[in-house]
Amino acid sequence: MTSRTGIVLGIVLLALLPVVIRDEYFLHVMVMIEINVVMAVSLWLLGITGLISFGQAGFMFIGAMTTALLMKLGGWSFWVSLPLSAIMAAVVSAPVGRLSLRVKGVYFFLITLAFGEVVRGVFAYFEHPFGGWYGIRDIPPPSPAAIFTGMGKMPFYYLGLMLMLVTCAVIYRISRSWFGSVLWNIRESDVLAGSIGVDVPGFKLVAFIGSAFFSGLAGSFYATYIGYISPLVFTFEYSTNTLIFVVVGGFANIGGPIVGAVLLTLVSEGFRSIGKYQSMAFGLILVASVLLMPTGLIGAAQGWRERSQRRRRAVVPAADRQG
Amino acid sequence: MALLEVTGLTRRFGGLVAVNDVSLTVETGEIHGLIGPNGAGKTTLFNVISGSLPASGGRVMFDGADVTGLPIHKLASRGMVRTFQHSQLFLNFSVYRNVLAGMHIHASSGFWAGLIDSRSTRQRNAALAERAHELVRFVGLGGLEDAVAGSLPHGHKRILQVAIGLGPQPKLLLMDEPVAGMNHADVDRMMQLVRTLPTARGTTVVLVEHNMKAVMNTCDRISVLQFGRKIAAGLPEEVAADQAVIDAYLGVFDDDVA
Amino acid sequence: MPIPTARDTTRSISANIVSAGLPRRQLLGVSAVAVAALISQKPAWAADKTVVLGCSIPLSGPAAPTGITTQRTVEHALDLINQKGIQIGPDRYTIVAQFYDNKYVPAEAVTVVEKMLADGVKFIFSSGSGNSVPVVGKTTAAKVLQMSGASGKDHLTGPQFPYSFRVQPTNETAYALYPWLRSNYPDLKRVAHMNPSDEAGYTESEDRRMIATKNGFTNVANEYFKRGATDFYPVATRLTGVNAELIDFGGTIGRDQALAAKALRELGYKGKIMLGYSDAKSFVDIAGADAAEGTILFDTLAAPQNPAEKEFNDWWLGKYGPPMPSFAYTMYDWPFMLAEAMRKAQSVDPVAVSVALRELIFQGLFGEAKFGMKSVYGLESSITRDIPIAVIKGGVPVPLALVPWPKDV
Amino acid sequence: MTLALQILVTGLVTGLIYMMIALGVTLLFGIMRVVNFVHGELVMLAAFVVFAVNVQLGLPFWIALPAAMVMASVVAVGCQKLLFKPLNYEILNCFIVGIGASFAIKSASWAIFGPEPLAIPATIPGVVTFAGAFVAKQRLLAAGICIALTVALFLFLHFTRPGKAMRAVEQDHEAAILMGIVPENVYVIAFVISAALAAVGGAILGTLFGVDPEMGSDPLLKSFIIVQIGGMGSIAGTVLAGLFIGITDSITGTLFGGELAFIIDFAILMAILVVRPRGLFGYDV
Question: Domain check: are C163 and C266 in the same one?
Answer without folding.
Answer: no
